[in-house]
Amino acid sequence: MSALLSVTNLSKEFGGVHAIEDLSFEVQRGHVHSIIGPNGAGKTTLFNLVTGLYQPSAGAVTLGGRDITGRAPHKLCEMGMARTFQNLQICMNMSALENVMLGRHRHLGSGALAAMLKLPGLRKADRHCREHCRELMTFVGCGDYLDHAASAMPYGALKRLEIARALAAEPDILLLDEPAAGLNATETEALKSVIQKIAGKGITVVLVEHDMKLVMNVSDHLLVISYGRKLAEGTPEQIREHPEVIAAYLGGGTRERQAQEVPA
Amino acid sequence: MKEARAMKKNILISPYGGLLLLALILALMPLAVSNDFHYDLLTKICLTATVAVGLNLLVGYAGQVSLGHAAFYGAGAYASAILTSQYNLSPMVALLSAAAGVGVMAWLVGRPILHLKGHYLSMATLGLGVIAAIVLNNEEQLTGGPDGVGLPPLSLFGHELSVFGEYQFAGLTFTGVELWYLLAAAVLVIAVLLALNIIDSPLGRALRALHGSEIAAQVAGVDTAKYKLRVFVISAVYASVAGSLYGHYSGFITPTVASFEHSIELITIVVLGGMASTFGVIIGAAILVLIPQFLTDFQELEMVVFGAILMAVMIFLPRGLLPSVLQRLQRGAQ
Amino acid sequence: MFSEFFQFTFSGITLGAIYALVALGFTLIYNASHVINFAQGEFLMIGGMGTVVLVGTGLPLPAAMVGALVLATVAGILLHRLAIAPARDADVVTLIIITIGASIFLRGLAQFFWGKEYHALPRFSATESLSIGGATLLTQSLWILGIAVVLVVALAMFFSRSKLGKAILATSMNKDAARLAGIKTQVILGVAFGISALLGAAAGLIVTPITFTAYDVGIMLGLKGFVAAAIGGLGSSTGAVVGGLLLGLSEAYTAGYISSDYKDAVPFVIILAILFFLPNGLFGSRAAERV
Description:
Chain A is of the alpha/beta class. Chain A contains eleven helices and ten strands.
């Protein structure tokens, strides 16, 4: 097993507040690696740091052995990283299908001249892209919305649409930020099988999620963070038994002290 | 049933169907008009619409505001004037050199300002436009200052195209005014075709994504800075070409072509006609060229009426004329 | 040599005080409604032209001034009520075009009713100028500075002391919360437009004795006010005052030492230079984008 993504001593401060503090972990290739923790633990900040939307205050991130610390999001996409957002980032001025096709950007020629002259090569590639993205929409369960405008879609479908857009990039690693938030039980069940199918294709998945049942079902490995620091790490079984995790999730008031006691 | 109706609708409002319709209307226009004055207005509409179609790529599709676009129009016109009269270049060579030069200029000024957002981008583009107009006014040796500068007639393949000339083609006689209209109409059709091609491509998707969600675009692999710069340059080149042509057509230009007021007129055309609607902005251009003609009846009240119309349209049809009308028609059909 | 510098500095501060007032007007409206009001310059025009016209009807100067200020304030409130409030959900660019339409409309009205001629006002003091250390100071400049300081202080007190001022602040910070707290936000926004128009008209009025006025003076003055507001960082009142003074001084020095042909370009060169290094102006807040 080799680590695909590795985070070393990562820190992020916002005006003196440590959102992420000295955090280190590795994600093994082919794993579904979940990151859990109470609200405000810094999970989304961590995603934003890893995907280049925020610049870390200190520490390093590597992908496949290459240093990617602070690299621009579009460059990370070209290196095979894709993600979704907790608060949707959908282009509401475009159709659902076009949003997914946008995800394939890195595989298509986008020269201005070729576009203006509608060169046959580009047209053919774009037609293939359209077909492929329709399949992806069906794959994630958005098959009912193939001809819809993004703005006409319900919330749950938009969440899946973001997954389709991320998959369109054909990533090696996919980061999902609370994909089950706001979904009902049936939708969550469908999401679970989508995640399993994605993992089945050999794509490494990093999952931030509050739905414990989903997390425990799909994950190979878990990372628990609290107040920006690592609380625990291990397999679902190990985490289930972990006293500090139980305390953090059930203990409420002792959370702060617990977090400080954990050695970095 | 539902699918069949969707198909039919697609052909009717498919962009390329619109292009065909536009070409047809432009080709049939000579049947409807008779005098030189009408041809003059039509030519001006076509050239103005060409700028607007380019500006719409930037503002309507990519969502980046420019309140200084007349600077590129003026730069094209003045570059053509200076290159033809002071460096004796042929008008076509001058036009192409001007377009290339303006493209480079847009690239250079665009790099530092396009990372600005919202009102700060408006401010920066506005500032560039005002500075360009002041330079044109003050560099008298080069530009003739506020009095303006003359341009020779356009020449195509060795033939001069003067508005005062008369030309024989295949047994038919055309006046220079008529030929100018046909030329401007052809330029507009080509401008629209290229714009539609861009929109219907991966590049166009990336541009619209800048408007929809810059973050989505970034994580999907779009180098947002590069694409903003690209569309800025493309729209500047559109403006430059139209400016050069206008200069040769009118034979004389003053710094007002690059003025703040003209920049405002251009952005107004885009917003009034309908942002992200290529055919909407052509209608916008037609309205802004024609409105002063209709308002001459109001004489002293011309500005009042124009201001009131502008406000009313934007308040009641905030998405612009064509998109709002299409939306109502669609709703009516359902 | 020194007297020259003193002279330029003084005229720069005078000009800067005017820009600062216009910029404060922009800031006020921007904070309250996030609209950049391109009709702001027209309030200056109404202040100047209105006074001229009312004096022409035989009114004494002070009464004419009050009349013009009232006229501009009413115009500001109507602008909000009739043009901005109905379009509050519109796109930013659409709102820009609406305010541009309003500015053309107001300019057109002024041209129709008041004519296209240039006008001046008598200076406020009988003594026209003072001589200090070889430099000539216009007494009108002292009036301008004095009135500008009074207005800025009054505005600051209004926002920190009065209930209405606090309601405007609350509305600009969070419209929904203000509405829940029982503030009628649309009325408040109208008041903000009115005050902004009043500030603009006062600036236009006090500057007229030294610069002339006409139906179209609002365009350039309005644009420079926008620049001053952006230099400081849109939304910052301190920034608006600093930006105004900076603009006035650099314009005066350019005209004095370099070239008066390019003095109108100075504000725009400055703002481009500033935005190049500080994309949110000098005092603008750097809000991190939340994802």
